[in-house]
Structures are given as C-alpha cells and as structure tokens.
Amino acid sequence: MIHNFNAGPSILPDQVLQEAAQAVLNFNDTGLSILEIGHRTPLFEAVLDEARSLVRELMSLGSQYEILFLHGGGTTQFMQVPMNLLDEAGTAAYIDTGVWSSKAISYAKLFGRVKVLASSQDANYTYIPKNFSVDPPVTYLHITTNNTIYGTEWHRIPDGKGVPLVADMSSDIMSRVTDFSKFDLIYAGAQKNMGAAGVTLVVLKKSLLGKVQRKIPGILDYQKHIEAGSMLNTPPVFAIYVTLLTLRWLKAQGGVAAMDKANTEKAGLLYDALDRLPVFKPTVVKEDRSRMNACFVMKDPALEQAFAERCKQEGMYGVKGHRSVGGFRISLYNALPLSSVKDIVALMEDFAKTHG
Ligand code: PMP
C-alpha cells in the first residue's frame, strides 16, 4: 500500500488519473489523443468553458470576476501581479510569511514600491503575523494564504480597510470554505489541490486593470488574456484537462464545503497524534497551523533517520520537510484519503511506542 503525502505536485484522485490516461489514448471517443488536438477546436473550447464555469460555481464567484488559466506557475504571478497593478510611484503592501511571499516581495520591488507590513521571519515563519495595519494609500495588499514550506495558514482573512486584497492560494485553493468575494485577485498553481502542474488559475476583478502607465507585453497582460479567453497563445491543454477532471471530481464530492469538512478531520487526526505522542514536536503555533501541510521535527533529532526509514519501508511517500527547513512535512491535500492519515498515525503511534 502506497500513501502519497507529496507537497506538490501531489496526489490526485484515482478516478482523475484513470480518465486522464484514457484521454491520452482516446479523447471523448474521437480516436485522437487529448495531446494531439488543436486548442482552437470545439473539443478543447468545451473543456475550457466547463473548467471556467466549474471554478465560478465552486468558488461562488460573481460576474465581476474573470477566470484565467495561464502558464508559468505561481512564480510568474509574483511578477505578473505587480506588472499589471502597481505603478512605479505606487506602493504595494505585502505580508512576509516565508519563502514564497519573500519571492513575491522581491519581484514586486522590480515594478514599484513595496512596504512589508509584517513578517514572521523572527520565528522562522512558524506563525502568521497579526499585528499590522494597512494605511492607505496602498495599491494592494498581498498575502500567501497557506505557507507550504512551514505549515502555516491564514485562518482569518485580514481586514484590508478597502485596499484591494491579492492572495497566493497555491496550496490551499478549493480546500476550505472561504469568502472569495473579499479578494480582488487570487492566483494558484493547480498542482496541489486542483489538478496537474503546468496551469495556474487566476481569478481577478476586471476593475483592477488599466491603471498602470507602463507598457505590458501581451503575454503578461491580464487584459489581453481576458479578451482572448485564456487563448492568447497555446494554453497548457493537458494540464487544463486534468484540472477539469479534478474540478468535476471535487463537485461530485460535495464541492469546497465537503473538502473543508474532510480536510478538517484529516488535519485534526494528525495534529492530535503530533501533540499526543512524546517523540514528535509540531513546529507551528497552534492557532496558525495549516490544514494542508503539517510540519514537525523529532524531539530527539537522532530519531529523524529512523523515522524517515520507517516511513519509506511502509510506502509513505513525501514526508520529508522542505530542503530549506528540514524535519518532516505531511501534506493533506484534497485528494488524500482519510485512510492515508489513519495509516500514518498508526505508524507514528507504533514508532513512539518503540522509541519513546
Ligand atoms: N506559492 C506557494 C504557496 C507555493 O507553495 C509554491 C510552490 N510550491 C509557489 C507559490 C510557486 O509555484 P510554482 O512552482 O507553480 O511557480
């Protein structure tokens, strides 16, 4: 039995893998592979239309939001957001919650002024900063809703005092009930909760656009992508198709509310074990713990090797922490079944008995 706790790209539902494999061989009984159809065909247009409308439905987005499927991952959004929204003389506010937000900050500095309102760097990013205030004029406020590397998550959306709110939701999109109407721009690589690597979802209010002076190359211009319906150039056809299959699966499970419930149960079970078993030490303050990535170390570092070895022997994949922080990280994305969490908890209990 194999369990996939990879942090990204990550586990996908079995059904999605079966359907994707079938579509590689014979897409919709056309005799053609999904990999060999033109993107400007009714066949692919139907895929894109359905993916767009499922995103709108699952996130309950009003008509003021545009939905784009773009290339380049979350990392390209670190650049594309300020390029489209921030003038050289303007100021964007960022909260620094680790590697990904730091990257977003460094890219934004290439386009305008950046004010880092708060940072949790002082405690190795093991909490979410809360004591900060947004003082306009600020062009937008940027947060990273889930910090994949450290295992912290914003459980309360900050009050932006009317300043447009931009969020990197790469590692918790569609995983919990969220009032998306509080956000003005959301971006997320699909490869954790929503599909395959290669496509990035961008949801944005059109009213944000057209306010910067600089010239923007077409391929990086949100406005041009909106006008072209995400078909400015060849889109990542297969990644969008896998995302569509995953969104269909998500809806069939009961949508974001069902994911929220399942993810809460999975995270509850795992954190309970981490708190209860004396050999493990969770690294994040309780109130800011992520329901997507649970990070921990061994109280006795000498046991790390033995625990890693035991996980490997029992087919528990992807439990090592990010190379920049070490320790362990268990990712609990949408497609991870509860049974995988129960199995690793059983392993942890047994390990604690032997080594406690
Ligand atoms: N933001 C977050 C929160 C992430 O976890 C990651 C990657 N794991 C990124 C951005 C970067 O995404 P990409 O590799 O798709 O550029």
Automatic annotation (TrEMBL):
Pathway the protein takes part in: Cofactor biosynthesis; pyridoxine 5'-phosphate biosynthesis; pyridoxine 5'-phosphate from D-erythrose 4-phosphate: step 3/5; Amino-acid biosynthesis; L-serine biosynthesis; L-serine from 3-phospho-D-glycerate: step 2/3
Cellular component terms (Gene Ontology): cytoplasm
Cofactor note: Binds 1 pyridoxal phosphate per subunit.
GO biological process: L-serine biosynthetic process; pyridoxine biosynthetic process
Keywords: Amino-acid biosynthesis, Aminotransferase, Cytoplasm, Pyridoxal phosphate, Pyridoxine biosynthesis, Serine biosynthesis, Transferase
Catalytic activity: 4-(phosphooxy)-L-threonine + 2-oxoglutarate = (R)-3-hydroxy-2-oxo-4-phosphooxybutanoate + L-glutamate; O-phospho-L-serine + 2-oxoglutarate = 3-phosphooxypyruvate + L-glutamate
E.C. number: 2.6.1.52
Nucleotide-binding listed as a keyword: no
Sites bearing N6-(pyridoxal phosphate)lysine, chain numbering: 192
Annotated L-glutamate binding sites: 40
Main location: cytoplasm
Binding site for pyridoxal 5'-phosphate: 74-75, 100, 148, 168, 191, 233-234
Family in the record: Belongs to the class-V pyridoxal-phosphate-dependent aminotransferase family. SerC subfamily.
Function: Catalyzes the reversible conversion of 3-phosphohydroxypyruvate to phosphoserine and of 3-hydroxy-2-oxo-4-phosphonooxybutanoate to phosphohydroxythreonine.
Protein known as: Phosphoserine aminotransferase
Naturally occurring in which organism (per UniProt): Dinghuibacter silviterrae
Organism taxonomic ancestry: Bacteria, Pseudomonadati, Bacteroidota, Chitinophagia, Chitinophagales
Protein encoded by which gene: serC
